[in-house]
Amino acid sequence: MKARTPFIAGNWKMNLDHLQSIAFVQKLAWTLSDARHDFATAEVAVFPPFTDLRSVQTLVNADDLPIAYGGQDISEHDNGAYTGEISGAFLKALDTKYVVIGHSERRQYHGETDEQIAGKVAAAHRHGIIPVICVGETAEDLETHGPSAVPVAQLRVALGGALKGSDVVVAYEPVWAIGSGQAATSDQAQQVCAALRVVIAELLGDDVAQATRILYGGSVKSSNIAGFMRETDIDGALVGGASLQLEEFASIVRFQKHVGT
Ligand code: PGA
Protein backbone atom coordinates (compact mmCIF):
# COMPACT_ATOMS: atom_id res chain seq x y z
CA MET A 1 0.00 0.00 0.00
CA LYS A 2 1.16 3.56 -0.68
CA ALA A 3 2.40 5.62 2.25
CA ARG A 4 -0.11 8.33 1.33
CA THR A 5 -3.64 7.55 2.51
CA PRO A 6 -5.87 7.36 -0.57
CA PHE A 7 -8.47 10.08 -0.73
CA ILE A 8 -11.85 9.86 -2.46
CA ALA A 9 -13.57 13.22 -2.69
CA GLY A 10 -17.10 13.85 -3.95
CA ASN A 11 -17.63 17.24 -5.59
CA TRP A 12 -21.41 17.68 -5.56
CA LYS A 13 -21.26 20.97 -7.49
CA MET A 14 -24.65 22.76 -7.37
CA ASN A 15 -26.65 19.66 -6.41
CA LEU A 16 -28.46 18.50 -3.24
CA ASP A 17 -30.00 20.96 -0.79
CA HIS A 18 -29.38 20.79 2.95
CA LEU A 19 -32.09 18.18 3.59
CA GLN A 20 -30.92 16.01 0.72
CA SER A 21 -27.34 16.36 1.93
CA ILE A 22 -28.26 14.97 5.35
CA ALA A 23 -30.02 11.98 3.81
CA PHE A 24 -27.12 11.34 1.44
CA VAL A 25 -24.33 11.53 4.01
CA GLN A 26 -26.29 9.36 6.45
CA LYS A 27 -26.90 6.69 3.80
CA LEU A 28 -23.29 6.87 2.60
CA ALA A 29 -22.06 6.23 6.13
CA TRP A 30 -24.46 3.29 6.53
CA THR A 31 -23.53 1.79 3.17
CA LEU A 32 -19.81 2.00 3.93
CA SER A 33 -20.20 0.66 7.42
CA ASP A 34 -22.39 -2.24 6.18
CA ALA A 35 -19.62 -3.02 3.70
CA ARG A 36 -17.09 -2.82 6.57
CA HIS A 37 -15.11 -0.11 4.82
CA ASP A 38 -11.88 0.61 6.68
CA PHE A 39 -11.51 4.41 6.60
CA ALA A 40 -7.80 4.07 7.36
CA THR A 41 -7.38 2.63 3.85
CA ALA A 42 -9.29 5.37 2.03
CA GLU A 43 -10.37 8.72 3.41
CA VAL A 44 -13.75 9.97 2.21
CA ALA A 45 -14.87 13.57 1.88
CA VAL A 46 -17.89 15.29 0.36
CA PHE A 47 -17.99 18.83 -0.98
CA PRO A 48 -21.58 20.07 -0.69
CA PRO A 49 -22.91 23.54 -1.53
CA PHE A 50 -22.25 26.15 1.19
CA THR A 51 -25.86 26.12 2.40
CA ASP A 52 -25.52 22.42 3.31
CA LEU A 53 -22.36 22.64 5.37
CA ARG A 54 -23.98 23.41 8.72
CA SER A 55 -26.38 20.48 8.32
CA VAL A 56 -23.58 18.12 7.33
CA GLN A 57 -21.50 19.30 10.29
CA THR A 58 -24.36 18.68 12.71
CA LEU A 59 -24.94 15.17 11.38
CA VAL A 60 -21.25 14.22 11.28
CA ASN A 61 -20.76 15.47 14.85
CA ALA A 62 -23.94 13.95 16.27
CA ASP A 63 -23.30 10.50 14.79
CA ASP A 64 -19.51 10.72 14.89
CA LEU A 65 -19.27 9.79 11.22
CA PRO A 66 -15.82 9.19 9.71
CA ILE A 67 -16.64 11.38 6.71
CA ALA A 68 -14.88 14.68 6.09
CA TYR A 69 -16.40 17.62 4.25
CA GLY A 70 -15.27 20.70 2.46
CA GLY A 71 -16.38 23.84 0.68
CA GLN A 72 -16.37 24.23 -3.09
CA ASP A 73 -14.73 27.67 -3.00
CA ILE A 74 -13.34 30.25 -0.57
CA SER A 75 -12.82 34.01 -0.71
CA GLU A 76 -9.30 35.40 -0.90
CA HIS A 77 -10.42 37.91 1.73
CA ASP A 78 -11.17 37.26 5.39
CA ASN A 79 -14.15 39.62 5.72
CA GLY A 80 -15.54 42.89 4.40
CA ALA A 81 -17.51 44.29 1.49
CA TYR A 82 -17.40 41.25 -0.81
CA THR A 83 -21.04 40.47 -1.53
CA GLY A 84 -21.72 36.80 -2.10
CA GLU A 85 -18.30 35.61 -0.96
CA ILE A 86 -17.59 33.10 1.81
CA SER A 87 -14.69 33.63 4.21
CA GLY A 88 -12.31 30.91 5.32
CA ALA A 89 -13.13 31.95 8.89
CA PHE A 90 -16.78 30.96 8.30
CA LEU A 91 -15.78 27.63 6.80
CA LYS A 92 -13.43 26.92 9.69
CA ALA A 93 -16.20 27.75 12.18
CA LEU A 94 -18.13 24.81 10.65
CA ASP A 95 -15.13 22.45 11.10
CA THR A 96 -14.62 22.38 7.35
CA LYS A 97 -11.46 20.37 6.75
CA TYR A 98 -10.99 20.94 3.03
CA VAL A 99 -11.85 23.43 0.31
CA VAL A 100 -11.81 22.93 -3.44
CA ILE A 101 -9.95 25.79 -5.11
CA GLY A 102 -9.65 26.63 -8.81
CA HIS A 103 -12.10 24.09 -10.17
CA SER A 104 -12.26 24.47 -13.96
CA GLU A 105 -15.92 25.55 -13.69
CA ARG A 106 -14.83 28.48 -11.46
CA ARG A 107 -12.04 29.30 -13.88
CA GLN A 108 -14.36 29.09 -16.89
CA TYR A 109 -17.63 30.62 -15.63
CA HIS A 110 -16.25 33.03 -13.05
CA GLY A 111 -13.01 34.02 -14.74
CA GLU A 112 -10.81 32.92 -11.85
CA THR A 113 -7.16 33.53 -12.57
CA ASP A 114 -4.15 31.60 -11.33
CA GLU A 115 -3.24 34.61 -9.17
CA GLN A 116 -6.67 34.64 -7.50
CA ILE A 117 -6.36 30.92 -6.97
CA ALA A 118 -3.01 31.47 -5.23
CA GLY A 119 -4.78 34.06 -3.05
CA LYS A 120 -7.45 31.51 -2.17
CA VAL A 121 -4.82 28.89 -1.30
CA ALA A 122 -3.25 31.46 1.05
CA ALA A 123 -6.68 32.19 2.58
CA ALA A 124 -7.34 28.49 3.18
CA HIS A 125 -3.99 28.09 4.92
CA ARG A 126 -4.54 31.23 7.02
CA HIS A 127 -7.62 29.53 8.41
CA GLY A 128 -6.17 26.03 8.80
CA ILE A 129 -8.15 24.53 5.93
CA ILE A 130 -6.53 22.14 3.44
CA PRO A 131 -6.87 23.39 -0.14
CA VAL A 132 -7.70 20.89 -2.87
CA ILE A 133 -6.06 22.74 -5.75
CA CYS A 134 -7.55 21.87 -9.14
CA VAL A 135 -5.50 22.13 -12.31
CA GLY A 136 -6.06 20.79 -15.80
CA GLU A 137 -5.81 21.50 -19.49
CA THR A 138 -8.61 22.08 -21.99
CA ALA A 139 -8.84 20.04 -25.20
CA GLU A 140 -7.33 23.02 -27.00
CA ASP A 141 -4.43 23.25 -24.52
CA LEU A 142 -3.85 19.55 -24.99
CA GLU A 143 -3.55 19.98 -28.73
CA THR A 144 -1.34 23.06 -28.53
CA HIS A 145 0.86 22.35 -25.52
CA GLY A 146 0.57 18.63 -24.77
CA PRO A 147 -0.86 17.26 -21.52
CA SER A 148 1.43 18.54 -18.73
CA ALA A 149 2.39 22.12 -19.63
CA VAL A 150 -0.80 23.91 -18.60
CA PRO A 151 -1.50 22.01 -15.36
CA VAL A 152 2.16 22.38 -14.35
CA ALA A 153 2.09 26.15 -15.00
CA GLN A 154 -1.22 26.51 -13.09
CA LEU A 155 0.13 24.61 -10.10
CA ARG A 156 3.33 26.65 -10.01
CA VAL A 157 1.32 29.86 -9.55
CA ALA A 158 -1.25 28.35 -7.16
CA LEU A 159 1.43 26.98 -4.84
CA GLY A 160 2.84 30.49 -4.54
CA GLY A 161 0.03 31.03 -2.02
CA ALA A 162 0.82 27.93 0.05
CA LEU A 163 2.10 28.37 3.57
CA LYS A 164 5.26 26.33 4.21
CA GLY A 165 4.46 23.34 6.40
CA SER A 166 0.70 23.33 5.65
CA ASP A 167 -0.92 20.46 3.76
CA VAL A 168 -2.21 20.70 0.24
CA VAL A 169 -4.06 18.24 -1.98
CA VAL A 170 -3.74 18.59 -5.74
CA ALA A 171 -6.40 17.43 -8.20
CA TYR A 172 -5.48 16.91 -11.82
CA GLU A 173 -8.67 17.32 -13.82
CA PRO A 174 -8.35 17.52 -17.59
CA VAL A 175 -11.21 19.84 -18.58
CA TRP A 176 -12.12 17.65 -21.56
CA ALA A 177 -12.65 14.70 -19.22
CA ILE A 178 -15.01 16.47 -16.78
CA GLY A 179 -18.60 15.33 -17.18
CA SER A 180 -17.84 13.98 -20.64
CA GLY A 181 -17.79 10.27 -19.87
CA GLN A 182 -14.36 10.33 -21.52
CA ALA A 183 -11.86 9.82 -18.70
CA ALA A 184 -8.13 10.15 -19.33
CA THR A 185 -6.33 6.83 -19.52
CA SER A 186 -4.57 5.93 -16.29
CA ASP A 187 -1.29 6.16 -18.16
CA GLN A 188 -1.94 9.75 -19.32
CA ALA A 189 -3.11 10.77 -15.87
CA GLN A 190 -0.07 9.19 -14.23
CA GLN A 191 2.29 11.15 -16.48
CA VAL A 192 0.73 14.47 -15.57
CA CYS A 193 0.46 13.63 -11.87
CA ALA A 194 4.18 12.69 -11.85
CA ALA A 195 4.99 16.08 -13.43
CA LEU A 196 2.85 17.82 -10.78
CA ARG A 197 4.74 16.01 -8.02
CA VAL A 198 7.99 17.38 -9.44
CA VAL A 199 6.55 20.92 -9.20
CA ILE A 200 5.58 20.33 -5.56
CA ALA A 201 9.11 19.06 -4.84
CA GLU A 202 10.65 22.12 -6.48
CA LEU A 203 8.48 24.59 -4.61
CA LEU A 204 7.78 22.92 -1.27
CA GLY A 205 10.55 20.34 -0.98
CA ASP A 206 10.89 16.59 -1.48
CA ASP A 207 9.31 15.54 1.79
CA VAL A 208 6.18 17.55 1.13
CA ALA A 209 6.02 16.21 -2.43
CA GLN A 210 6.19 12.64 -1.17
CA ALA A 211 3.50 13.28 1.43
CA THR A 212 1.11 15.23 -0.83
CA ARG A 213 -1.89 13.47 -2.26
CA ILE A 214 -2.53 14.02 -5.95
CA LEU A 215 -5.98 13.09 -7.19
CA TYR A 216 -7.25 12.42 -10.67
CA GLY A 217 -10.67 13.83 -11.65
CA GLY A 218 -12.80 13.63 -14.78
CA SER A 219 -15.42 10.95 -15.44
CA VAL A 220 -14.25 8.71 -12.61
CA LYS A 221 -16.56 5.72 -12.08
CA SER A 222 -16.45 2.47 -10.15
CA SER A 223 -15.41 0.75 -13.38
CA ASN A 224 -12.27 2.85 -13.96
CA ILE A 225 -11.12 3.86 -10.45
CA ALA A 226 -8.95 0.79 -9.90
CA GLY A 227 -6.81 1.56 -12.95
CA PHE A 228 -6.08 5.07 -11.68
CA MET A 229 -5.34 3.87 -8.16
CA ARG A 230 -2.75 1.38 -9.41
CA GLU A 231 -0.60 4.27 -10.69
CA THR A 232 2.32 5.41 -8.53
CA ASP A 233 1.50 9.11 -8.45
CA ILE A 234 -2.31 8.95 -8.25
CA ASP A 235 -3.54 8.91 -4.67
CA GLY A 236 -7.26 9.27 -5.10
CA ALA A 237 -10.04 10.83 -7.10
CA LEU A 238 -12.14 13.97 -7.26
CA VAL A 239 -15.50 12.61 -8.36
CA GLY A 240 -18.29 14.78 -9.78
CA GLY A 241 -21.35 13.12 -11.34
CA ALA A 242 -20.73 9.69 -9.80
CA SER A 243 -20.47 11.21 -6.30
CA LEU A 244 -24.22 11.90 -6.43
CA GLN A 245 -25.07 8.22 -6.91
CA LEU A 246 -24.86 6.55 -3.56
CA GLU A 247 -23.98 2.97 -4.55
CA GLU A 248 -21.62 4.12 -7.27
CA PHE A 249 -19.76 6.52 -4.98
CA ALA A 250 -19.53 3.92 -2.20
CA SER A 251 -18.11 1.48 -4.73
CA ILE A 252 -15.48 4.05 -5.80
CA VAL A 253 -14.53 4.53 -2.14
CA ARG A 254 -14.13 0.76 -1.87
CA PHE A 255 -11.82 0.65 -4.91
CA GLN A 256 -9.46 -1.68 -3.08
CA LYS A 257 -12.08 -4.40 -3.57
CA HIS A 258 -11.63 -4.09 -7.32
CA VAL A 259 -7.89 -3.51 -7.56
CA GLY A 260 -6.34 -6.54 -9.19
CA THR A 261 -9.64 -7.79 -10.65
P1 PGA B 1 -17.09 14.36 -13.25
O1 PGA B 1 -16.60 15.74 -12.58
O2 PGA B 1 -16.66 13.25 -12.33
O3 PGA B 1 -18.57 14.48 -13.37
O4 PGA B 1 -16.41 14.27 -14.58
C1 PGA B 1 -15.38 15.86 -11.92
C2 PGA B 1 -15.21 17.24 -11.36
O5 PGA B 1 -15.66 18.21 -11.99
O6 PGA B 1 -14.64 17.42 -10.26
Outline the secondary-structure elements:
Elements: E1 7-11, H1 18-34, E2 43-47, H2 53-63, E3 68-71, H3 88-93, E4 98-101, H4 104-110, H5 114-126, E5 130-135, H6 139-145, H7 149-158, E6 169-172, H8 186-204, H9 206-211, E7 213-217, H10 225-229, E8 236-239, H11 246-253
Parallel strand pairs: 1-2, 1-8, 2-3, 3-4, 4-5, 5-6, 6-7, 7-8
Helix pairs in contact: 1-2, 1-11, 5-7, 7-8
This protein binds 2-phosphoglycolic acid.
What structural keywords apply?
261 residues; alpha/beta; TIM Barrel; eight-stranded parallel barrel; 8 strands; globular
Task: Characterize the largest beta sheet: strand count, sense, and whether it forms a barrel.
Answer: 8 strands, parallel, barrel
What order do the SSEs take from the amino end to the carboxyl end, as H and E? EHEHEHEHHEHHEHHEHEH
The outline comes out as globular
- Helix proportion: 40-55%
What is the number of domains? 1
Instruction: Tell me the CATH topology.
Output: TIM Barrel
Q: What is the CATH-assigned architecture?
A: Alpha-Beta Barrel
Bound molecules: 2-phosphoglycolic acid
The span between the termini is: 16 Å
User: For the CA atoms, what is the radius of gyration?
Assistant: 17 Å
